[in-house]
Automatic annotation (TrEMBL):
The keyword Transcription regulation applies. This is Helix-turn-helix domain-containing protein. It comes from Microbacterium aurugineum. Keywords: DNA-binding, Transcription, Transcription regulation. Residues 159-261 form the HTH araC/xylS-type domain. Pfam families: DUF6597, HTH_18. PANTHER family: BLL1074 PROTEIN, HTH-TYPE TRANSCRIPTIONAL ACTIVATOR RHAS-RELATED. The keyword Zinc does not apply. Gene3D superfamilies: Homeodomain-like (1.10.10.60). It comes from the Bacteria.
């Protein structure tokens, strides 16, 4: 199911923003596609802050095709002028075809350049789709999905296992430790660690922490009447102080401050 704003810290400040489901042909490769479009007045900017999913993104805009790695802290982009981007939140099965060592891209990004002709074709087709008027987003996703399916090819059984691993780590709120995830998947903790490093770039524990923090941020923002201690307990934090430390280490602010700011 596509969550329209999870991971977005200040949804009310977004320009036009859409998350579109992955077409069936890339359901094993992409969680969803995301498309912001903006038109900012001259001399102004709009800062968009995210506590991103622990996954790689492949992003096309009018100028480049970029592969973005997992982030360990709040990330942001300052939007200026007029523009758009079309991004794919990648599932692990897509990663091996695009990068050998995703850990090398943590908190970074790089242009996707090889093979040059194929990358140029992707950018050309997505730009043409985004310039085509009504239905442009759906057409952009269609050509992007077709390109990615061709680039990755057949999905192997180990890649499917990596997808299942991240599904458990990111979707199962009952899983609070790597040991619980390994038991659920029927693998050793060491195997779990190797697979997340190879397909995501970070540890299983870090993925679980990010999932909890995303959900905590959403609840702090969307449930102003619920006390922070209750949110902490529901999400498996040891206490309110534990939630506050997690917030401050990644977001740089306390949850009570975030709650006040997000209501503005």
């Amino acid at each position: 199911m596509v969550n329209p704003t999870r991971g977005v810290l200040y949804p009310a400040r977004l320009p036009e923003f859409h998350r579109l489901p992955a077409p069936a042909e890339v359901a094993e490769l992409v969680v969803w596609f995301w498309i912001p479009e903006w038109d900012i007045a001259a001399g102004r900017s709009s800062r968009q802050e995210m506590v991103a999913y622990p996954a790689l993104n492949l992003v096309v805009d009018a100028d480049a095709v970029m592969l973005s790695g997992v982030t360990t802290r709040v990330s942001h982009r300052d939007l200026r002028g007029r523009g758009w981007a079309v991004g794919a939140l990648l599932r692990p099965a897509a990663v091996a075809a695009l990068i050998d060592d995703p850990a090398a891209l943590i908190d970074g990004e790089r242009a996707l350049t090889a093979p040059e002709s194929a990358v140029a074709a992707l950018r050309h087709d997505v730009v043409a789709a985004m310039d085509s008027g009504d239905g442009r987003r759906e057409r952009a996703v269609e050509v992007f999905a077709r390109w990615l399916a061709d680039r990755v090819g057949a999905v192997s059984e180990p890649d499917r296992q990596a997808n299942a691993l991240t599904d458990v780590l990111m979707d199962d709120a009952a899983v609070l430790t790597p040991e619980e995830a390994a038991t659920r998947l029927g693998v050793s903790v060491r195997t779990l660690q190797r697979m997340t490093h190879r397909h995501v770039g970070i540890s299983p524990a870090a993925m679980i922490r990010r999932r909890r923090l995303q959900e905590a941020a959403q609840r702090v923002r969307d449930q102003p009447g619920v006390d922070l201690a209750s949110i902490a307990a529901d999400l498996g934090y040891s206490d309110h102080a534990h939630l506050t430390r997690d917030f401050q280490s990644v977001l740089g602010i306390a949850p009570r401050v975030y709650r006040a700011e997000s209501s503005l």
